[in-house]
Amino acid sequence: MSAEFPYVRPRRLRQSPAMRRLVAETRLHPAELILPAFVREGITEPRPIGSMPGVLQHTRETLKKAAAEAVEAGVGGIMLFGVPLVQDATGSEGTNPDGILQQAIRDVVAEVGDDLVVMSDLCLDEFTDHGHCGVLAEDGSVDNDATLKRYEEMALVQAEAGVHLVGPSGMMDGQIGVIRRALDANGYQSTGILAYTAKYASAFYGPFREAVGSSLKGDRKTYQQDPANARESLRELEQDVAEGADLVMVKPAMAYLDVLRQIADASPVPVAAYQVSGEYSMIEAAAANGWVDRERLILETLTSIRRAGAGQILTYWATEAARLVK
Ligand code: PBG
Questions:
Q1: Looking at the DSSP assignment, which residues form a beta bridge with residue 38?
Q2: Using CA positions, which residue lies closest to atom 12 of ligand 1?
Q3: In the chain, is it the N or the C terminus that has fewer CB atoms within a 10 Å radius of its CB?
Q4: 201-222: per-residue pLDDT in tens?
């Protein structure tokens, strides 16, 4: 055989659907998908979110239906976000035992709690009138340690409502440790923590701000990570694991697949990734224009996030994608 003959022929393994299926290294399964869902206080009909076509602000009733549909499709979990009627400086509704998020947790746990892992956003930005993820100091900066006190209270009302995993997303230093201690000290040893470990200050969260009615002016650059950096993600990982995180997360997903790979290689606990609102909306917008094949892109992006090392993926397409891969 002469040297120039193409004796290496990778195309053999690509020649038929059956062959490609046989050698696929990455498979999507509904059980690893997590559906983020919004529930809004004081509405009687679900409201569309203009910047996220196909995603709704739910009523308590339609949220239960969405959770049941997710179960039906085989989805693994649901992440709840509350949109309160009243926002104030300290985010009082976030720690009101009867606040909208706590009610939603109770509703969903009662409806599908045996079949779906129920999670809740543990952060103040949905509840504060200034839109920051914490409480503010006199000078207007976000006060890390005062915020930790609020997170402890939030963790307790969410745990009391029956949530399985709290999802601290505020990027305050020490948040996992104080939440773990507060939960344990109050009898909630079984309530777990899905830590937003490497969370970047990203423009990809744009549509989410409409989804939760956030009034944020400015940005979150003093607490969320700089997109320029990867190294500090590993430091955050080390810290969150030491403080008791049960799972860790990288967010956003698509623009941070390198960070995801590094975290996946280093983490002793399961690693999730969040395909965020802007990632969703870009694809929906391009598809609405007929520029891309929507279903193929949904599956391609999810597959890429899996391939980069995510064991679990939060995606607004969770229920639909679960049906597609079933
Ligand atoms: C904070 C939080 C945000 C998202 C999830 N949790 C917003 C932010 O940090 O600015 C964004 C999710 C998305 O864009 O889909 N509570």
A1: 57, 81
A2: 276
A3: N
A4: 999 999 999 899 898 988 999 9
The amino acid at residue 10 is P
User: Quick check: CB of 79 below 6 Å from ligand 1?
Assistant: no
Measure the N-to-C terminal CA separation of the chain; round to a whole number of Å: 45
Q: From the CA of 269, how far away is ligand 1's center (Å)?
A: 22
In this structure, the residue with its CA closest to atom 5 of ligand 1 is 169
Residue nearest to atom 14 of ligand 1 (CA): 205
CA of 18 from ligand 1 middle (Å) equals 40
Q: pLDDT averaged over the chain?
A: 97
Which domains does the chain possess?
Answer: 28-325 (3.20.20.70)
Cα–Cα nearest to 169, from 143, 147, 190, 139: 147
Is the CB–ligand 1 distance for residue 279 below 6 Å? no
In whole angstroms, what is the distance from residue 105 CA to residue 156 CA? 13
Answer yes or no: is the C-beta of 120 below 6 A from any ligand 1 atom: no
Structural contact between residues 150 and 94, judged by C-beta atoms closer than 8 angstroms: yes
Q: Ligand 1 centre and the CA of 208: distance in Å?
A: 6
The per-residue pLDDT for range 102-114, each reduced to its tens digit, is: 999 999 999 999 9
Residue 1 Cα to chain centre, angstroms: 54
Q: Under a CB-based contact definition with an 8 Å cutoff, are residues 90 and 147 in contact? A: no
- Provide the strand spans (E) within 200-270: 247-251
- Ligand 1 touching residue 172 (CB < 6 A): no
- φ, ψ of residue 194 to 5 degrees: the values are -95, 105
Residue 274 Cα to ligand 1 midpoint, Å, equals 10
